[in-house]
Amino acid sequence: MSRWLPPFLRLGLLALLLAFLFRPAWFSGLLQPLVQDGAPAIYNQGDLLTLTLLHLRTVAIATLGATVVAIALAVLVTRPIGAEFLPLSRSLVNIGQTFPPVAVLALAVPAVGFGEKPTLIALFLYGLLPIFENALTGLTTLPPSVMEAARGAGMTGFQRLVRIEIPLASPVMLAGIRLSVVIGLATATIGSTVAAKTLGEVIIAGLQSNNLAFVLQGGLVVAALAVLIYDAFSALERAAARRMGRI
Amino acid sequence: MIEINTVTKRYGANTVVDAVTMTIAPQTITVIVGTSGSGKTTLLRMINRLVEPSEGTIRIDGEDILAIPGYQLRRRIGYAIQGHGLFPHRTVAQNIATVPELLGWDRARIDAKVAELLTLFQLDPAAFGNRFPHELSGGQQQRVGVARALAAEPNVLLMDEPFGALDPIIRAKAQDDLLAIQKHFGTTIILVTHDMDEAFHLADKVAVMDKGRLLQYDAPAELVLRPATPFVETLIGAADRPLRLLSIAKAAEVVEPGAAEGEPLSATDSLRDALSALMWSGRETLPVAGEDGTILGHVSLQALLQRAARPQ
């Protein structure tokens, strides 16, 4: 699979990332040529590891919220009782995606103040669409003979959902969550414009003080996180799909 | 016993099943035949309430099925479909255990039942129980599908073209297995097919449907000898009538005393097979052997021709 980094590359990237987060000083020589005389090469206004963990926490909370809401919504509109809400929920989720996160931040700050909250709102809204659309695809493209057999065996609607539909749709749902997480990891950086503690802080500090090394290390840490998490989700999806003989 | 009384199903102005009345005797195999869109599958699906009748009543052993919640009714009725419908994320053993689990059987009883059924369907429980459906061949998947339908020991088994996706050799084997299973459990089987050979091979009684109406519900021989409508005659195939008659009788029924030359036939072979063997060997008579191999007598070409002729 081409979207799968060979295992050694993945492990190498993880080792490099951990080394940089725990021992940034080791890398200062590497980044020194990028800065003007006297300026620090490694971010010095906060701990990189703490920022990374806060960044991940923000993305995790927002994605978890988006996952719960989007999957609940997809389950609801695929039941007979909720079918008429399908167009409505589709447009709502689409609006969430069309609204640029920066605009959401700008609108949310007056309402909830500076800090992590407006970032969470922006990431949550932005992450809904991929999860919702994928969950919808997964739940509506189940093999008809399998669903017929589940009904014929005497499963109730809830038993079919929990025992058959969600497990069978899980690889496609996971793909949606993966997209949402990766988008969220990148988007979370702009949260620092409204004082959220994320890796965006490093990038913004670099831009303000014309320090290329800061910009680069902030960007690279986010990129490495995105690649590794994308990779982990792909492996999960593959494991789920292989179990069902889809590969 | 299943009593279907003036059952009708309408979708809007479209009548799919039109006032069908039939009574199915316990421990028999009833085959519903008809062209696509004749309403045969809809009729079958009304028996386990996958489709709700618009009018009429269905009783199973005297109990109106509308008195039981649909999902509980379906746990008591086996259901096997074309393309097996096995759950791809559950192992063979888990698939077979589906209904017993829903009924809350204890683990030991479920495990024993799964092992019993796998053995009955000639699948080694140790080798197959933990495999996933996609790791099986088409014929094995189909057998697991029927085993799953029988797991909770239902009195009634509904089958919707269960052998439709199998190649001819495996299909013949699956049909013989089904006959053996039916003898073993005494299950009442209602099977839908559009394959007339299959119908004549399996059925105690055949129900012919066309455009939602039940045209004739009779023993296979009656269908050949006294078709109720031209449609029934066409469906059976006018040219095939003598062969159909031969195919539903066994060699034991026409055996005459006396010895004969040649490879013996089995008493359980159909007369059609017997005719075929006689023609191929070029002989007038062939010996018939019982199950234990003793020669019971012989069948003659003459007897077969008489048997296949239209009754005067």
UniProtKB/TrEMBL annotation, chain A:
Oxidoreductase as UniProt keyword: no
Membrane topology: Multi-pass membrane protein
Annotated compartments: Cell membrane
Residues annotated as domain ABC transmembrane type-1: 52-233
Transmembrane segments: 51-77, 98-115, 121-147, 168-192, 212-236
Keywords for this protein: Membrane, Transmembrane, Transmembrane helix, Transport
Keyword NAD: no
Family named by the database record: Belongs to the binding-protein-dependent transport system permease family.
Chief location: membrane
Native source species: Metarhizobium album
Single GO cellular component term: plasma membrane
InterPro entries in alphabetical order: ABC_transp_perm/SBD, MetI-like, MetI-like_sf
Protein name stated in the entry: ABC transporter
From TrEMBL, chain B:
Family membership noted in the UniProt record: Belongs to the ABC transporter superfamily.
A GO molecular-function descriptor: ATP hydrolysis activity
UniProt entry tagged with the keyword Transport: yes
Species classification: Bacteria, Pseudomonadati, Pseudomonadota, Alphaproteobacteria, Hyphomicrobiales
Domain ABC transporter, chain residue ranges per copy: 2-236
Signal peptide (from-to): none
Cross-referenced PROSITE patterns: ABC_TRANSPORTER_1, ABC_TRANSPORTER_2
UniProt record, GO biological process: quaternary ammonium group transport
UniProt keyword list: ATP-binding, Nucleotide-binding, Transport
InterPro entries xref list: AAA+_ATPase (IPR003593), ABC_transporter-like_ATP-bd (IPR003439), ABC_transporter-like_CS (IPR017871), P-loop_NTPase (IPR027417)
Organism in which the protein naturally occurs: Metarhizobium album
Protein name according to UniProt: Amino acid ABC transporter ATP-binding protein
SUPFAM superfamilies in the record: P-loop containing nucleoside triphosphate hydrolases (SSF52540)
Top-level taxon: Bacteria
A Pfam family the protein falls into: ABC_tran
